[in-house]
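Internal ticket - ligand job 702, zinc ion:
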Amino acid sequence: MKNQNHFLTFLFLVLIPVLVSGQQENQNPFFEEWDTPFGSPPFDIIHEDHYLPAYQEGVRQHMDEINAIANNPEPPTFENTIVAFDQAGALLRRISPVFSGLSSAETNPVLQSIARETTPMLTAHYNAIRLNEELFGRIRTVYDNRENLDLDREQMVLLEKTYQDFERGGAALPEDKREEFKKLSERMSMVSLQLSENLLAENNAFALIIEDETDLAGLPANVVETGVQEARRRGMEGKWVFTTAFPSRVPFLQFAENRELRRQMYFGYVNRGDNDDENDNKELFIELMMLRQQLSEMLGYNNYAEYFTAIQMAENPQNVYDFLYRVWEPALARAQMERAEMQAIIDREGGDFKLEAWDWWYYAEKLRKEKYELDDDEVKPYFTIDNVRQGSFTLANKLWGLTFEPRPEVPVYHEEVEVYEVFDYDGSHLAVLFIDPHPRPGKRSGAWCGTYRSGGYENGEWVSPIVTMVMNFTRPSGDKPAMLSWDETSTYFHEFGHAVHNFFAKGQFRRTSRSVPRDFVELPSQVLENWAGEPGLLETYAIHYQTGEIIPGELVERLEKSEHFNQGFVQTEYLAAAILDMDWHTSDISEDTDVNAFERASMERIGLIDEIVPRYRTTNFGHIFGGGYAAGYYVYRWAEVLDADAFQAFKDSGDLFNRELARDFRKYILANNALYEGMDAYVRFRGQEPDIDAFLRRAGLK
Ligand SMILES: [Zn+2]
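stdout (structure tokens):
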């Protein structure tokens, strides 16, 4: 930790001379027109030393615009207040997507250091806007008069959302309460930060150190190698070290024959934050729950779950519970079956013991080999990265008539990035798509979709979106093309789904364009994953790169079946965590609440079996204490039910590429996010509320 701080100081010092020497404002591309193709960011001339002055100027301009709105001598109107506020901040809108996009896809110590300067600056800037009394006073005046303004539906939505954003941020409270609210929020972020830092420390605190080679029995060579490397990193040559990090822990639990060591690894992981040491999270977690409760009550809600769900598709905590319980029963039943199947293996092998929680991965792996074996190397030659990209383009063409043309003349930030122009069904320009497929040292892990410019009106003119998909797929090697595993193929379609949502989003205003609830946002992405594995689409793209043969049906069947593997466990541990999250955020918590007793009672109530713990236990549930998913961990499964049901509509129609359904999906789900929201949008597309069956069948729970 100490070393790291030194490192930061060092970076900070070297950065300053760069900023001072390299800067001539009139050459900063952020202050000039971009005459690039499609007006895309001129990555070839943007330099690191342009960001900070651009941000400073962007904040200054935005604040001037805000002050002009707030201090306007004219009485507040929808145009001079609400629309003006929505349009303000054009320069920041130019800089932020470029800077944050590169901070994820192609970062370096200088960008990281700039982020450490701009993050507090921007936080302070947006706080100052939210707490600007004159501004909110004018917004409130317009809002209170909304019924007399003759607004159309989208204008009304803009007004309501703008007012709501301020209100949920405490702006509507009386002055003395506002001060209290501010203190509460500040304390909340401190506590939340401390909880996350403790968790990070706990992740690193546990290490399973192996000195006797026989204790490695069962581990494949590459897993042993990770143990060797970790030991070397710690200066423990000749030993093997395994940690709680996923790539170390999970293979260890899957393969280590030594049951006692599996037990140690298991508890090292599940007890993070619950070790009664300096990183213990129990007391802090209770404080956080009480702060959230207070804050929610100040804003007029009974509890934090009500506050969170009020602006979600689910609308209220009861709907979330009803939903979770409906999936819970079949998931638990399935997990019990899996438990029995694994116990049978233990018995057959002559093991004289009952399956325990730390045995699950080990016997699940044996079960996988017996029943669900799928060799990635057998699948990959059908899914070269070019094939998969083509498959996603073909799908968008069959559903919505989109076409794609390479545009190598568009400037990029790295030579591996490919650029396509996207055309709508009538041949008109729709969007620009960047695809950045391979890992690099400056790229964060995982896969995501973002924008370098979101679609929207600037000065009354439509500006099309520039969308980016960023992945970490293996690059080509020698004469072999880049080939994707089945998981990666699904991920590709997933991110492409987010991209399509960005292509189509069409709002009159910034705040109403592609602004969807958290429990809705994964529907457009997840739904496309369904097509990836359908024979009707596979035959167009899953073609062996050497033999030219279409993927055989038998392999497709095994692909499908492999997706059912261990689903009882996966769903049960997820749902248990989601229910635990809801319980915490709907219950009365006091200093006397015992974290572990609460957790136990919660799990007993739903009948969780001993062999499974919630995917995250309270003291290491980073999503809900640090990650913005408080009372919202349910959203992942919620969206899955929606996507399975939405895809079912296409299957039921007898046409996988039903154009009419696709048109409705575009209109209600993807494009007009302000006009049709949440369940209303869904029902307009589907004709009815989602049915859980399609999801249960797909997960093999029915
Ligand atoms: Zn996603």
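Auto-summary: Strands lie at 207-210, 240-243, 403-406, 418-423, 429-436, 448-453, 456-458, 461-463, 466-470. The first helix runs from residue 2 to 21.
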